[in-house]
Amino acid sequence: MDAYDIFKKISKGAKFKTKQRPIIKPLENDITIKSEPIEIQHTVLTHTTCSDSNNISTILEDQKNDFVLLNSFAEAGKIISGKKRKKDIEQQLSSMDETKQKKMREEKANRYRNENSISVVGRHVPEPIKSFQELSSSVDSVLLANLAKCGYTEPTPIQKQAIPAMLEDRQILACAPTGSGKTVAFLLPLLQHLQGPQSSGFRALIICPTRELAKQIQQECIRLSDGRNLKIHILSKINKAITQYDPKKSNGKYDILVTTPNRLCFLLNQDPPAINLNSVEWLIIDEADKLFEESVRSFRNQLQQILKACCLHKRRVAMFSATCTPIVSKWCVHNMKGLIRVTVGLRNAVTDTVEQELKFVGNEEGKLLAIRDLIRRGVNPPVLVFVQSKERAQQLFTELIYDGINVDAIHSDRTQLQRDNTIRSFREGKIWILICTELIARGVDFKGINLIVNYDFPPSSISYVHRIGRAGRAGRRGKAITFFTVDDTVNLRNIAHILQQSGQQVPEFMLRIKKRSKKERKRLLTSALKRDDITTTPVYELMKRRRWKRRTDKTIQRENNVNQNGYINKM
Ligand SMILES: Nc1ncnc2c1ncn2[C@@H]1O[C@H](COP(=O)(O)OP(=O)(O)OP(=O)(O)O)[C@@H](O)[C@H]1O
C-alpha cells in the first residue's frame, strides 16, 4: 500500500477540488492547492482515529515510512505554503501600496495642476515639474545653465507641464496665455532631444506664421543652446536657400530650421525638392490656430506636404498657441498618436496682467482726436497702435509724424530690411509709438510694452486676445485701450464678454447686444470693415490731391512710353 492508497482510504467521503491525485499533482504545480488535501488528510486522520482505531493503527504500523513521508510532505507543504502566502500577501500589499502611492502621486500632481490652472487630457500624462532643478537628471546641465543665464529661475505653468511631456517624447497640443513662455516650453525639450550637432540634415523644424516671429524664435533658440554648437537656420532669402540647402550640394550640417510654411513649401515644390526633411525628428508648429485659419486655407494642404516630407517614422509633432480652435484640436486628435492636450487657464482668454478699456469715440474723426488726446495727456512708451490695414497704417503714420511724435509704422508693404530695422529701433527705444497691422499681433515679444491702442476694432475675439497680449508679458503689467464706433457693434459683444471674463467692468448694454450670425462674423474676418480714411485734411483738399496724383501718374506713364519708343524726353 503506498501513500496514495492510504490517503484514498482515510479520505473517503472528503471532497477535493481536483480529481487528480491530490498529493502528487498539486505539489508539482500549485503549492496552495497541495496544502489543502494534506491538511484535510490530518483532520480526517484524527477523526478516523476516534472511530476506527484498530484500522488506523494497522495502517500506521504497516505504512510507517509512508506516513513519515506523508507528514514531511505536509510539513513541507505547510512551510512552503506559509512562505508563499506571506510572499503573496507582501506582494499584494506592496502592489496595493504601489497603486495607492501612484494614486496619491496623481492626486498630488492634479492638486498642483489646479493651483497652476493647468488642465490636461491624455493617457499617462507625466507629472508637472515644480522647478527647473527637478530636471537635473533629464536635462543637460549646459541647457539648465543657459536657462539661468536668461534669467529664467522658475518655470511658468505651461513650461511645468509641457517640458516633462515633451521630454518623454509625447506629442502635444498646448494652449497657454500670451507671454506665458511657450517658446521655452518647446525649445528646452527640443534642444535636449537633439543633443549636439550632427551632419544628417535638419532634425527639428519649427513653423510659425510670420518671418518676424521666426527670427525671434531663432534668436531664443541660439540663446538657450549656447555651448552646444547647433546649427540653427532661418529661411529668409529664397534664392540663396535653393542653393544652400540643395540635398545634392549641401553637407547636411544643419540641425534646426525655423521658417514660415510658404517659404518651406516653395523649396519643397522645386523639382527635385530643394530641401531634404528626411531626418526631421520634431516638428513644432507655433501659433497653430493662425495657420489653420479659414483665410489661410492652404496651410492645411501645406502641412500635409510638410508632414509627408518629414517622413522619419519616429517624427513627433507639437503644437502651441495662446488660442485654440476646434479645428486644430480635431486635427491633432486624428493625426497625433498618444496626444497630450495641455491648457493653462481658460481657453482663448486674455492674460490677466493687462488692464482693458473700451472707449466709444463716435466716428473715424473721433478716433484721431482720441489718440491725439491720449498722447497729449501723456503716454508711457513703448506703445503699440493696431490698425486694420497697411493703407491705414500709412495714413495714421502720416498724421502723427506731423505732430512731431517719435513714431513709425510696420506692415507687409515695407521691405524686409525696413521691417527688421523698425523692429530693432522699437526694441532699442528709438521709436516710441509703433503703428502696426496684424503682422505683429502674434508671438512677437517686445519687452515692457506699456500700452496697446486698438485704433481699429479687432476683427475677432482671437485677434483681440493676441493684440493685447503684446503687453503684460512674463508677469509684467500693461494696459489696452480699444476704440470703437457704431460700425464696430458686430464684434463688440464678443470682446465685451472677454473683458467680463477677465474680471473687468463692462457696461451691461454691451453684453446684451444681439449675437451676430456666424455668417456675418465670418464675413468680417474675410473682408475688413470699410472705414473712412484717417486724415484731418478737408475733403476738397483730398480730392484736389487725388486729381493731381492721377495727372502726375498719367504724365509719368506717357513719358515712359515716349522713352521706350526712343524719343527724347521733353522734361
Ligand atoms: N521661466 C521664465 N521666467 C521668466 N521669464 C520667462 C520664462 N520663460 C519665458 N520668459 C519670458 O517671457 C516672455 C514671453 O515668452 P514667449 O514669447 O515665449 O511667450 P508666448 O507664450 O510664446 O507668447 P505668445 O502667445 O504671445 O507668442 C519672453 O520675454 C521670455 O523671455
TrEMBL record:
InterPro entries according to UniProt: DDX52/Rok1_DEADc, DEAD/DEAH_box_helicase_dom, DEAD_box_RNA_helicase, Helicase_ATP-bd, Helicase_C-like, P-loop_NTPase, RNA-helicase_DEAD-box_CS, RNA_helicase_DEAD_Q_motif
GO CC terms in record: cytosol; nucleolus
Recorded catalytic activity of this chain's protein: ATP + H2O = ADP + phosphate + H(+)
Subcellular localization(s) per the UniProt record: Nucleus, Nucleolus
GO terms under biological process: maturation of SSU-rRNA; regulation of gene expression
Family: Belongs to the DEAD box helicase family. DDX52/ROK1 subfamily.
One Pfam family hit: Helicase_C
One of the record's GO molecular function terms: RNA helicase activity
SUPFAM superfamilies: P-loop containing nucleoside triphosphate hydrolases
SMART domains linked: DEXDc (SM00487), HELICc (SM00490)
Motif (Q motif): 132-160
Name listed for the protein in its UniProt record: Probable ATP-dependent RNA helicase DDX52
Span of domain Helicase C-terminal: 353-514
Keywords assigned: ATP-binding, Helicase, Hydrolase, Nucleotide-binding, Nucleus, RNA-binding
Residue ranges constituting the DEAD-box RNA helicase Q domain according to the UniProt record: 132-160
Residues annotated as domain Helicase ATP-binding: 163-342
Main location class: nucleus
Basic and acidic residues bias (residue ranges): 97-111
Gene3D superfamilies, per the entry: P-loop containing nucleotide triphosphate hydrolases (3.40.50.300)
EC number of the protein: 3.6.4.13
Disordered, as annotated region: 92-111
EC main group: hydrolase
